[in-house]
Amino acid sequence: MVSGQIESKLVNPITDEKNDEKKPSRRVRAGKVEKLTPGTKKLVEDKHEDVVVVNVNGEYFAVSGFCPHAGGFLGFGYLEGHKIECPMHSWQFDLRNGCLDGMENCSPYDRLNTYPVIVEDGEVFVEFPAGA
Ligand code: FES
């Protein structure tokens, strides 16, 4: 920068992001890999949303911890393959996309939020979106 110039960055008033800078996502630790064995579930409490981390045959999924129907706790849900069944009224959700089982285009009212899960150095992390 030449002396006397003022450094400025454009700010998007909607996103509050400067230029094209991406805010980093936020990782929250779920636990050690050896504790989250296949078939186990674990509640991860977070300010953004409480989620349930599930291990299905070595593949991890993180979904909303509470059912969109009437708030059933999915930490007590039943697992069957890639499905989790709410313990209250037996709605079943696909862990891969959060949708009610059998629905391809589901709305926020009939699906669970899903989050990426990252395994690093023997630890499992849920990745929440930037700013969450
Ligand atoms: S609260 Fe989950 S199916 Fe009713």
Describe the structure.
By secondary structure, this protein is mostly beta strands. The chain has one domain (26-128): Rieske Iron-sulfur Protein, CATH 2.102.10. It has no helices and ten strands. FE2/S2 (inorganic) cluster binds at residues 67, 69-72, 86, 88-89, 91. Residues 67, 69-72, 86, 88-89, 91 line the site of FE2/S2 (inorganic) cluster (FES).
Helix-strand pattern, N to C?
EEEEEEEEEE
The major β-sheet equals: 4 strands, antiparallel
User: Based on helices, strands and strand pairing, what is the structural class?
Assistant: mainly beta
Distance between the termini: 34 Å
Hetero groups in this structure are:
FE2/S2 (inorganic) cluster
Shape-level CATH architecture: 3-layer Sandwich
CATH superfamily: Rieske [2Fe-2S] iron-sulphur domain
Keywords:
132 residues, mainly beta, Rieske Iron-sulfur Protein, four-stranded antiparallel sheet, three-stranded antiparallel sheet, 10 strands, 33% strand, globular, disordered N terminus, binds FE2/S2 (inorganic) cluster
Short description:
The protein has about 130 residues and is mainly beta.
Topology summary:
Layout: E1 26-32, E2 41-44, E3 51-56, E4 59-64, E5 78-80, E6 83-85, E7 92-94, E8 114-115, E9 117-120, E10 123-128
Antiparallel strand pairs: 1-10, 2-3, 3-4, 4-8, 5-6, 6-7, 9-10
